[in-house]
Amino acid sequence: MSLTIDPRVAALLGHDHHLPAVPPERLTRQALAERFASPPQWQPDIEVERWYQAPNPVAAAVLVPLVMRPDPTVLLTLRTSHLKTHAGQISFPGGRSEASDPDAVFTALREAQEEVGLAPERVEVLGRMPTYTTGTGFVVTPVVGLITPDEVEHERLSLQPDPSEVAEAFEVPLRFLMSPQYHQRRAFDLSGVPLEFFSMPWASPHNEREYFIWGATAAMLRNLYRFLSA
Predict the structure, then answer these.
(1) Which residues contact residue 20 at a Cβ distance below 8 angstroms, ignoring those fewer than 6 apart?
(2) Termini Cα distance of the chain
(3) Cα–Cα distance between 222 and 182 in angstroms, integer?
(4) What are 147-171's pLDDT values in tens digits?
(5) b/e map of 98-131 (b: 16 or more CB within 10 Å)?
(6) What is the pLDDT of residues 181-195, one digit of tens each?
(7) pLDDT of amino acid 55
(8) Structural domains in the chain, sorted by start
(9) Among 91, 95, 127, which Cα is nearest to 218's?
(10) What is the pTM of this model?
């Protein structure tokens, strides 16, 4: 699928109003830690994008940073428009694994520090989610971690985004992302073949902008929903 296509123009197939939201009591620090310590039986919705055709997949990892505010949020980034892959898209902090990285957790923490200035010691790693293979040939391991804001970070985390990779870092309420009524099912028509994907458009109350979360990021959030709701 061409990444130059605006996903906002893709056909809207519907929402998942029939699925329940993850209860707020499952989004607390203790409940999240217990869920990862003793995972339920569950199945991800998407593990490989249908348009995946890469002959030599590249290992990568992302950090799924859950910011433990009174109403928990997810830290996301808006990628700069000049990057070779996924330019201008919303993503988790992360990137490809280096040969010197001992594991996916190290990759995710290293990339988060490089991209947004998030020190590894600030992240309480809960665990990993199943890998997600993108159509651009990355086999991504999502690493879920908790971030506790300090006393001076009531409004915004103290971050230092790398301007060469990250145009903006922002937070989205976890309750919104874990509510399937906001999960849109969309599809592109590629030579008569519908290529379906999830999107989760979120309107920020702070700057009145809409952040169009879609593709791999939305799919991994959808898998997180399945994990927490199982």
Answers:
(1) 180, 229
(2) 31
(3) 11
(4) 999 866 777 888 999 888 899 999 9
(5) eeebeebbbbbbbbbbebbbbeeebbeebbbbeb
(6) 999 999 987 777 778
(7) 77
(8) 7-229 (3.90.79.10)
(9) 91
(10) 0.93
Q: What is the pLDDT of residues 87-144, one digit of tens each?
A: 468 999 999 999 999 999 999 999 999 999 999 999 999 999 999 999 888 999 999 9
Strands (E), 129-221: 132-133, 138-147, 166-173, 184-190, 193-203, 210-214
Length of the chain: 230
Q: Which amino acid is at 164?
A: S
2 band by pLDDT with thresholds 50, 70 and 90: very low
In terms of Cα–Cα distance, which of 194, 162, 184, 180 is closest to 225?
180
Tokens of 140: 């991504």
Largest CA distance in the chain: 54
**Per-residue CA distances from 60 to 32, 70, 223 (Å):** 24, 31, 17
